[in-house]
Design a protein that fits this description.
about 375 residues; five-stranded parallel β-sheet; two-stranded antiparallel ribbon
């Protein structure tokens, strides 16, 4: 059995966090299927991995599958594999995710987005404990613990005819519900410190927060939950590496909209609101009032100016260029998917990508496709 280290990955000391960790301990050694529900960004995969790491299946693989990121026409092959010649492009045999997870766990994320025909095939796998590779002549036995997750209300999906009731009861043997971050607000400070350390560049001090800024962060409702908090601290750690952040240090353009509305008028916010509206002379005058342009000026001033001009910012300590470029690539894909209402083919055309390349990137960035 793994050490208690994996349980600590669901971070927090609130009653909700303690309850989740206790639930993981109770369920980890079972062979039964688990259904994890909760809003997006609440740590459903963290729970799934902890269940795996605390189980006696640690010698097998943990195989995650985002059911919403893989087109339905490819999902069967991804899950169950295929034989050479089964369809156009099947030039070799391919082992499916269930076989890769043999002896371990498969994590079916966003199970609520699975098509009805695939739900039928998954139900058979859960009943028979065998998979049928596409084009295969005989079923393949698998010893896999299934952990599924969704942000959707599956009972409502059943009522709407979009999810099979029999599959729901097959999955919902051991239910776990991850709480929204607003339901465990006492954990925000702990999570801020954790992500500040984990997102700090090698050899760089983690960012810290002034008390008034910390209070804003603790009071924010975090609609994107822990994922949103982690991404925000990642952003701050890249742009303001090693700094002690005060409210006026951070332009509104770097804050979530709801958080920006909570901020009192500070010099950075005034600068962002007035830049480009009052003309260069007025802007220069305002900057002279608010900032000391000596050689010892804080890097946050330069950052603010460059951000206001739409220019990239390079901290004195440097950045991890590969990570920054990956973040930019992810954001552009998210924007394009939003513009096309999740249509993968149209998104690929907007981004001048091959459809298969885009699908790979959607899977890489763990993006949802409606």
């Amino acid at each position: 059995m793994a050490s208690s280290r994996s349980l600590a990955k669901f971070i927090g000391e609130s009653e909700s966090a303690l309850a989740i960790r206790k639930t993981i301990s109770l369920l980890a050694m079972s062979k039964s299927t688990v259904l994890i529900t909760g809003e997006s960004g609440t740590g459903k995969e963290v729970v799934a991995r902890a269940l795996y790491e605390q189980s006696n299946r640690i010698s097998g693989n943990f195989v995650p599958v985002n059911c919403s990121a893989i087109p339905k026409e490819l999902l069967e092959s991804e899950l169950f594999g295929h034989k050479k010649g089964a369809f156009t492009g099947a030039v070799t045999d391919r082992v499916g995710r269930f076989e890769l997870a043999d002896g371990g766990c498969i994590f079916l994320d966003e199970i609520g987005d699975m098509s009805l025909d695939m739900q039928v095939k998954l139900l058979r796998v859960l009943q028979e404990r065998t998979v049928d590779p596409v084009g295969g002549l005989r079923p393949v036995e698998v010893d896999v613990r299934v952990i599924a997750a969704t942000h959707k209300d599956l009972e409502a999906e059943i009522a709407a005819g979009r999810f099979r009731e029999d599959l729901y009861y097959r999955l919902n043997v051991l239910p776990v519900k991850t709480p929204a971050l607003r339901q465990r607000a006492d954990d925000v400070s702990i999570l801020l410190n954790h992500f500040a350390v984990s997102h700090a560049a090698s050899g760089q001090k983690p960012i810290t927060f002034a008390s008034d800024f910390l209070q804003i962060l603790k009071s924010y409702h975090w609609p994107g939950n822990v994922r949103e908090l982690s991404n925000l601290i990642d952003r701050f750690s890249t742009i303001f590496a090693g700094q002690h952040l005060e409210m006026q240090s951070v332009p509104e353009s770097l804050l979530p909209r709801g958080m920006a509305a909570m901020m009192p008028g500070g010099c950075a916010n005034d600068f962002m609101a007035n830049f480009g509206r009052t003309g260069p002379d007025a802007t220069d005058s305002m900057l002279q009032k608010q900032f000391d342009f000596s050689e010892s000026v804080d890097h946050g001033v330069e950052t603010t100016i460059r951000l206001a001009q739409g220019m990239p910012v390079l901290p004195p300590e440097g950045i991890v260029l590969k990570k920054v470029l990956a973040d930019i690539e992810r954001d552009l894909i998210v924007q394009a998917l939003g513009r096309t209402d999740g249509n993968v083919s149209q998104t690929a055309r907007i981004l001048s990508l091959q459809r298969t390349t885009l699908i790979e990137k959607i899977h890489k960035f763990d993006l949802r496709v409606n």
